[in-house]
Inverse folding.
């Protein structure tokens, strides 16, 4: 076995900064949002994803893709948000083990009230630090990594279809079974 | 109240990419590391922080700063890692409510075995996507945000001192009480 190809000093700075800055910015925004609205950053991410989906409705695997969470974490998150009335579960017409998550009226109210505060915090903690050249550079880095992740990903295996129970552009997939 | 200053299309791309790319890269590395070593990314982050500290020992608030986690999450994490024998708790000489977390021999073994795999994944999922100009740009963005976060942070309030129970450069602070 060859020796590990450890990161050099410049790579360490880039990698550790990539992790630490992201965590710090998310942490500051999350704490302010929680204090002001009672929503955690996880609540907010789910509400945003649903609010942008047709009919405020997504299958669980779609939320999972958006948030890149482990399935167990997302399942618990949805259970808690359902108990608080922010989202509801709807059965999947074609797949008795599948499910949709849909935004409730209380969920819409919560995201509508929180979004203006959230964007203020994003500007304060993130964009206020950056010049236009930083923003352009960041977009380039993000897109280079995204292309790489997509090209290096395993292909998705085929699975059972599921039509939405109301109109909307919802593709089918597996791995979205709620307990 | 003025209208929210919503992000424009370019800012959206930068902000959403900042969140999504980070989550995706961390997710891929975490899943591989978990499969290969049984360590979660949270385990790994704690082990790395401790392994780099003098004597493999930190007060809890120092781990918290490194990982930018909520206190409850870190407390649970340390409880689980203690039960698995990866870290141990040591009382704080000057503060009966304070505590150190220290790497055990099993913890050293775990991080020593995992680190070469981890760096391989970081190269595969992250650096393989980037040219030198991307790395430089990322460092600049990270450092601009870091400077801004530091200048915008609230000053730390004074609190009770705590000397390390063995030699090492451990500063004092509050907010590191274990249950």
């Amino acid at each position: 076995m060859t020796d590990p190809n450890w990161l050099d000093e410049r790579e360490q700075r880039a990698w550790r900064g990539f992790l630490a800055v992201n965590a710090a910015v998310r942490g500051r925004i999350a704490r302010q949002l929680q204090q002001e609205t009672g929503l955690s950053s996880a609540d907010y991410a789910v509400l945003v994803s649903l609010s942008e989906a047709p009919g405020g409705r997504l299958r669980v695997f779609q939320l999972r893709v958006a948030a890149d969470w482990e399935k167990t974490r997302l399942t618990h998150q949805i259970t808690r948000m359902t108990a608080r009335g922010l989202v509801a579960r709807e059965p999947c017409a074609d797949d008795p083990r599948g499910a949709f998550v849909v935004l409730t009226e209380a969920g819409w109210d919560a995201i509508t009230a929180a979004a203006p505060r959230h964007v203020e915090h994003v500007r304060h903690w993130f964009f206020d630090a950056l010049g236009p050249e930083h923003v352009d550079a960041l977009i380039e880095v993000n897109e280079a990594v995204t292309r790489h992740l997509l090209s290096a990903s395993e292909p998705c295996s085929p699975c059972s279809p599921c039509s939405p129970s109301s109109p909307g552009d919802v593709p089918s997939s597996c791995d979205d079974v709620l307990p």
